[in-house]
Amino acid sequence: MIPTQMISNRLVRAALLFTAIAAIVGETRSRAAGEDARATPSAPTLTSRLEPLIRAHKGKVAIAVKNLKTGEEFHHRGAEVQPTASLIKFPVMVEAYRQAAEGKVDLDARITLRAEDKVPGSGILTDHFSAGDQIALKDAIRLMIMSSDNTATNLVLDAIGIGATAATMESMGYPNTKIHSKVFRRDTSVFPERSKAYGLGSTTADEMVRLLEALHAHRLASPSACDRMIEHLRTCDDRDKFPKGLPYGTKVAFKTGSVDEARTAAGLIDCPDGTVALCVLTCENQDRRWVPDNAGNVLCADVARAVFAHFSQPGAAPSAAR
């Protein structure tokens, strides 16, 4: 018979040996896990991609992003009212199509261009069309979006009313989205104080993204009208903002705006992981050069590139920063 004391000593030694082995195994597993973590870092989040771009820009920035398939979002100063420049022509198009659906305007109606209608800036009507020429309202809308034609915009505003866009946007839940006057015609302003503060138009990044989401979901007008508006946005010829940051052939339906101290862009980008609504607003920019690599243009392109990259990676890390 084995003495009780001997059995006790053996049990103690076995327990100590088991503890030592467990410690060694645990340390080995911990070391391996650490090595794996270093070898395969977690995917960057949308926040980690965008915040360095925002910090580096010398000016005020507001950004809103939403993946319309997954619901993933990013917001930076999304509710802050900022100038739109010509980006406000997108809501003007929405109002024109809504009025057409209600029978208030006829998209095929011919508009006669008068000499006094011509204003400077972007577009082709002022320099390449003669007083007395006629175009259809739908063609004026197309020029307003495609080449951001200022004269065409004013013709559209004559047809639908300057204050109509703001009234409709407010009734639909976009109270900060307003065009204030005709382009280069501050004397026509229906919101004089906002004209002084923001220029041609005003909005927030959040409202622009929600408006784009509603357009994508065919909630702004009939499905066919929404599809036509998206097609108009796909003709936008500003290649210095979103398109410059995207792979060749990426489908993007967007509108932009540019004035001395502000650069803006908003649109729908087809990414591998779903259609994304994106808005970038900049103002009070230090770089006021009228060159393709203006810092505001570059920021718009860089944000679009970062967003596309994020929604191209498998298992994108979620982000809901505000």
From TrEMBL:
One BP term from GO: beta-lactam antibiotic catabolic process
Pfam families: Beta-lactamase2
Keyword check for Hydrolase: yes
Molecular function via GO: beta-lactamase activity
Catalytic reaction list: a beta-lactam + H2O = a substituted beta-amino acid
Keywords: Hydrolase
Superkingdom of source: Bacteria
Residues annotated as domain Beta-lactamase class A catalytic: 63-282
UniProt feature coiled coil, ranges: none
Enzyme Commission number(s): 3.5.2.6
InterPro entries: Beta-lactam/transpept-like, Beta-lactam_cat, Beta-lactam_class-A
Name the UniProt record assigns to this protein: Beta-lactamase
The species this protein was found in: Aquisphaera giovannonii
